[in-house]
Amino acid sequence: KIKDMSRIGLITLVLIIIIVGTIGVWHKLPIRPQLNVANAQSLQTEITNSRNNAIVQAAQKVSPAVVSITVTQVRIVTTTPFYFYDPFFDQFFSDFFPKRQFREQIKGLGSGVIISQDGYLLTNGHVVENASKIKVTLPNGRQFDAKIIDIDHSQDIALLKIDGSNLPNANLGNSDDLMIGEWAIALGNPY
Fold first, then answer.
1. Strand partners, 74
2. Residues 90-117, buried b or exposed e (16+ Cβ, 10 A)?
3. Residue 124 DSSP class
4. CB of 109 within 8 A of CB of 191?
5. Cα–Cα distance, 52 to 50 (Å, whole number)
6. For the whole model, what pTM was predicted?
7. Cβ(137)–Cβ(96) under 8 Å?
8. CA 165 vs CA 1, 65, 121, 169: distances in Å
9. Rounded to 10 degrees, what is the CA torsion of 20, 25, 27, 31?
10. pLDDT tens, 17-56?
11. Which of the ends of the chain has fewer CB neighbours closer than 10 A, N or C?
């Protein structure tokens, strides 16, 4: 009987320790907040603010200055009266069936960025090369005719000018300030 009493006492002691320990741990656990409208809105605001990083801010800052460029180019097209071109065949029959040449208008699209409030903008040289008409469309829908100021063929860059004032513009940075491994973003507006 004494052994049974000591066993019951030991088991009771162990159970009391387990219960007290569980209650102590349970009281230290953080209480889960009730999810209500105010908490949900606060959580949504926190998530939105965390997504507003440097890349998003740069895109928001520069986007108003990124333009769409529509180009009309005229190119000379040469055709033969046959469905194929063969130099051997051509040397015998070119006098009887001469090639035809005609001008064809071709439309092209590209992007550019306004770099000054008075309407200077940069784009790729191949976009505007040999253009007979250049139309620049801002993100807000305003359209301007543009003229080519200069093209640097070795860098494939062109400087254009549109007649406008107080235009949104992007500030050019200094590439010497870049670090290897930094993020880069490309913005375009081809439509």
1. 105
2. eeeeeeeeeeeeeeeeeebebbbbbbee
3. E
4. yes
5. 5
6. 0.65
7. no
8. 104, 13, 13, 11
9. -150
10. 666 556 555 555 555 555 566 777 888 888 878 888 888 8
11. N
Cβ neighbours for 139, distance < 8 A, ≥ 6 positions apart = 63, 64, 66, 67, 189
Instruction: Give the tokens for residue 130.
Output: 């040999």
E strands, 34-191, are 66-79, 100-114, 120-124, 131-137, 143-152, 157-162
Classified as helix, coil or strand, 68 is strand
Tokens for 136, please give them. 């620049």
> Which amino acid would we find at residue 73?
Q
Tell me if 171 sits within 8 A of 43, measured CB to CB.
Answer: no
Of 70, 163, 156, nearest to 120 by C-alpha is 163
Identify the DSSP state of 165: S
User: Tell me, what DSSP letter sits at residue 32?
Assistant: P
CA distance 117 to 168: 6
What secondary structure does DSSP assign to 26-83, as a single string? HHHSPPPPP--HHHHHHHHHHHHHHH--HHHHHHHHHGGGEEEEEEEEEEEEEE-SSS
- Amino acid at position 120, single letter: Y
The answer to whether 162 and 144 have CB atoms below 8 angstroms apart is: yes
Q: Which amino acid is at 42?
A: S
Q: Which two tokens stand for residue 159?
A: 């400087």
